[in-house]
Amino acid sequence: VPPRGRGPAWCEWVYRHFGGLGSDLYGDEVPFDGHLAASRAGDVILTRLEANRHRVLRTARMARLSDAAYLKIVAPWQGSAEVVQKGRAAAVRSGGWTLYDTTLDYTVANPERSDHLIVMLPKEQLALPSLPLAQLVARRVGGTSGISRVALETMRSTYQELPSMSEAAARGAGELLIQLVRLSLMELAGQHTQQTQREALADRIRHHVAQNLHDPALSVEGIAQALRCSKRLLHGAFADGEDTLAGYIQQQRLAASIRALRDPARAGEPVTGIALA
Fold first, then answer.
1. In 49-111, which ranges are continuous DSSP H helix?
2. What is the pLDDT of residue 192?
3. What are the strands of the beta sheet with 106-110, ordered from one edge?
4. According to the model, what pLDDT value does residue 3 have?
5. Sign of dihedral through CA atoms 201, 206, 83, 248?
6. CA-to-CA distance for 97 and 236, rounded, in angstroms?
7. Phi-psi region of 52 (alpha: psi -120 to 50; beta: other; left: phi over 0)
8. Are strands 81-85 and 106-110 parallel, antiparallel or unpaired?
9. Rounded CA gap, 196 and 110, in Å?
10. Are strands 54-58 and 22-24 parallel, antiparallel or unpaired?
């Protein structure tokens, strides 16, 4: 429901920036319960979303129908979010952030009730020849120090102070946010640290799991042999996440089973058969 004084134009604005998405509630038999408040800082759109657990997705077809190109940041205040894009997945909680490209297909999972800050930045203002954006989406950004931490705190404070800013001040704050995010991405792109190597290995692991999910022999030992690395390295690649590698495999299998159970084409198939598959 639009706020008082914001009629069809407000609804059109919300749909233009947040419409065209698929969603589900993890199969919960409860209605969606959420609150969305959005503000602008020049060309930057900042939104606070408080909601029960849900997932949103944009297919390649949905992305092609969009007439606006944004890089979208999700930065949790409470709860968690996992962004999947370009074959990568990045899970973040309070203190971290990640981003995705709205011109491509993606999934954002919010597995618990959450309070997220969502920041939309025009893609054209971040696209630089030296900045490989395709390699930076679905990467965890942030931490306890560095320019990415400054960017996060500036996003939060800008959202909170926007109601008291003049239009000129808000535009200046938006330009500062774009600059800070650009610097954060440049730093991320230039890193060749142990953390970046772990993220690259984690991407290889997820790809291998996805390709071999139906193989009964899929195991940590088998993955180590296939990727020619030690089990210690495999476990280390998931050390920053909320789940172990074995737990990740189990969750992916459960997710595949849920999709199969919901598939009308498999309605007559026994549950046991789906589980064994």
1. 60-65
2. 44
3. 22-24, 54-58, 106-110, 81-85, 88-92
4. 44
5. negative
6. 21
7. beta
8. antiparallel
9. 24
10. antiparallel
The mean pLDDT values, 10 residues at a time, for the chain of 277 residues are: 47 55 81 89 95 88 77 95 92 92 92 94 87 89 79 95 93 93 86 59 83 89 88 84 84 89 87 88
Gyration radius (Cα) of the chain, Å = 20
Tell the residue number behind the tokens 């890089």, with chain if given. Answer: 71
3-state secondary structure 220-266: HHHHHHHHCCCHHHHHHHCCCCCCCHHHHHHHHHHHHHHHHHHCHHH
Nearest alpha-carbon partner for 135 in 181, 179, 188:
188
Six token digits for residue 128: 């630089």
Q: Please give the helix or strand (H or E) that residue 126 lies within, else none.
A: none
The pLDDT assigned to 144 comes to 58
The Cα 45–Cα 245 span in angstroms is: 36
Report the amino acid identity of residue 79.
G
Q: Which amino acid is at 244?
A: T
Tokens coding 47: 């939104």
Q: How many residues does the chain have?
A: 277
105: tokens are 């297909």
Helix (H, G, I), strand (E, B) or coil at 131: coil
Residue 201: both structure tokens together:
């290995």
Look at residue 199 and give its three-state secondary structure. Answer: helix
Whether the CB-CB separation of 28 and 113 falls below 8 Å is answered with: no
In whole angstroms, give the CA distance from residue 35 to residue 16. Answer: 18
- Assign 3-state DSSP to the chain and report helix, strand, coil percentages, each to 5: 45, 25, 30
Q: Does the reported pTM lie above 0.70?
A: no
